[in-house]
Amino acid sequence: MIAAIISKDAALRARLEAALEGAAGINSVLIIPEYPHASDIRSLENKNEQYVAFIDFHENAERAIMLASGINRYCPSIGTIAVNVSSSQADMIAVVRAGICEVLPQPFSNRDVETAVRNVTNKLAGVPGSAVGDGVVYAFLPAKPGSGASSLATYSALACGRLTDRRPLLLDFDIRLGITSFVLKLDSSHSIADALENAAHMDQSLWTQLVSARDNLDILGSAPSEFGGQVPLENFQSILKWARRQYAALVVDLPGNMEDYEIATMRQAGTIFLVCGPDLVSLHTARQTIQRLHALNLLDRVSVLLNRMDKRSGLSMRDIEGILGVPILVTIPTDERAIREAVREGTGISPKTALGKQIEAIARKMPGNVQNAAPPRPKNRFLSFFSVEGKVLDNWRH
């Protein structure tokens, strides 16, 4: 874990550095004396490291909010801690909406800093909090039927399970047209339908009977085709609440109809993976969905996955991002052969294929669940290369 201190205030930086000397898990302290550009912060996401960023709100609260929002949207491996935040209701609401993980009190003690770092570390690792079990939810939402969201949810969940020593859970909330049981060749007689029907009295014994397994992944598979009737919203919420107490990571496949239970699920999600294709119809529906999510104050959680992308699509990435109004997180190539082989065997996509590599890229965007292969760094303090307000900071301090 690397701590980044973003502040012009030299005294504040020194105060935080001193407090971080005794903080468990902090290997290095990165000093950033100006608000960096979003592109510089996003570049950190390419490294096999996790960061906790202390953002000083005193100099420019508006810039600090923009920076925190960008980190929350694009950098799931960076947790944020706000410093010098006004106690006004408006400012606190803005901080919450920006996705800030923790707010340091004024004045703060070394213990306050250590507690904030520990809380952020636990959140990045998907560790349940002290009050409730808060497993991280990753919701896969199709822009339109046939976008491939269910397949990506299934194979990304399998990849996540393969890359971690902790078992994630795949929940098939597409109760009308779910495909997970078919894709994974689950032979269980139970499904998500049974879980929803027994949501009011769920316990560990019943849960064990309902959940299927494939490799290092637990699954509540798709409902039978004859499943009908309306399921009360509270049943979905109860199952999700139970599951979040059992698992550090939950992948939820949603149908994309924007029903009440889908919206309630996305409100609990850390990331909403919006899946769309490169064709104009899919992009149009994706744009409409993005506008709806914006109206629901959920846009900061959205990451777009561009599925079945190939050179013949006719539109450049800039064109597509211009249509959507948001950047693309991952592009996924078409590979029918790899999918056929995976369905035939009931397993995941081979990571040796181009498709498999991009699915692993999605899995690695699920913070705290993919093991960090990088060796630990010695504890030090340094000033990195950052483009800040058109300048390059190139002095290193050891």
Please report the total strand number as a whole number: 16
Mean pLDDT: 81
CATH topology of the largest domain: Rossmann fold
CATH class category of the largest domain: Alpha Beta
State the end-to-end CA separation.
17 Å
Number of domains as seen in the coordinates: 2
Measured as a percent range, the helix fraction is: 25-40%
Q: What profile does the largest beta sheet have?
A: 8 strands, mixed
- Coarse structural class: alpha/beta
Poorly predicted sequence stretches spanning 5 or more consecutive residues? 127-133, 368-398
Strand content: 15-25%
Q: What is the approximate shape?
A: globular
Q: CATH superfamily membership of the largest domain, which one?
A: P-loop containing nucleotide triphosphate hydrolases
CATH architecture of the largest domain: 3-Layer(aba) Sandwich
- The whole-angstrom Rg is 22 Å
Count of helical segments? 15
Biggest sheet: strand arrangement:
8-9-7-10-6-11-12-13
Helices and strands in order:
Layout: E1 2-6, H1 10-20, E2 28-32, H2 38-43, E3 51-56, H3 61-74, E4 78-83, H4 89-97, E5 102-103, H5 110-124, E6 136-142, H6 149-162, E7 169-172, H7 180-183, H8 192-197, H9 204-210, E8 212-214, E9 217-220, H10 233-246, E10 249-253, H11 260-267, E11 269-276, H12 280-295, E12 302-309, H13 317-324, E13 328-333, H14 336-345, H15 354-363, E14 380-382, E15 386-388, E16 391-393
Parallel strand pairs: 1-2, 1-3, 2-14, 3-4, 4-5, 6-10, 6-11, 7-9, 7-10, 11-12, 12-13
Antiparallel strand pairs: 8-9, 15-16
